[in-house]
From TrEMBL:
InterPro entries: Tscrpt_reg_HTH_GntR (IPR000524), WH-like_DNA-bd_sf (IPR036388), WH_DNA-bd_sf (IPR036390)
Protein name in UniProt: GntR family transcriptional regulator
Pfam family, one: GntR
Matching PROSITE patterns: HTH_GNTR
Domain HTH gntR-type stretches: 17-85
Keywords: DNA-binding, Transcription, Transcription regulation
Listed CDD domains: WHTH_GntR
Length: 136
């Protein structure tokens, strides 16, 4: 029996990103990092609602989008399960990069940057790095 995944959705109501898309993005991130694997069960809509106080239809919309993309499947009466990983073995190979990024994030925080500042800075650097790359 597959166990329930240890993924907790964090909803940022100020981000300007639709709530259901935040769930989709966070699920994909967990897949890329290897935190979710095929066979893992996503939290039920009820569990997400209890943890985040969002509308159950929002959770279901996110799960339908993930299902449409072929990442999860709903099993009637059992829940929603991961069917495919993202990023493959890259998660294990990323350990040195992750350590460097964690070190950088720590320095940014020590320099007085807030979470949103760090996020904006990182997004700007990513945008510049992948400029013109429309693959992902």
């Amino acid at each position: 029996m597959a166990q329930s995944a240890a993924v907790e959705f964090r909803i940022d109501r100020r981000s300007g990103v639709a709530t259901y898309l935040q769930i989709v993005q966070q699920t994909k991130q967990a897949l890329r990092l290897g935190l979710l694997e095929p066979g893992d069960r996503l939290p039920t809509a009820r569990e997400v609602v209890e943890a985040t106080a969002i509308n159950p239809n929002t959770v279901l919309k996110a799960y339908r989008e993930l299902e449409r993309e072929g990442l999860v499947e709903a099993r009637r009466g059992l829940g929603t399960f991961v069917t495919r990983a993202l990023g493959g073995a890259a998660a294990a190979d990323d350990a040195p990069l992750r350590a460097e990024l964690a070190d950088w994030a720590g320095r940014a925080r020590a320099a007085g940057l807030e979470r949103d500042d760090v996020s904006a800075l990182f997004a700007a650097v990513l945008d510049k790095t992948f400029e013109g790359d429309h693959t992902g």
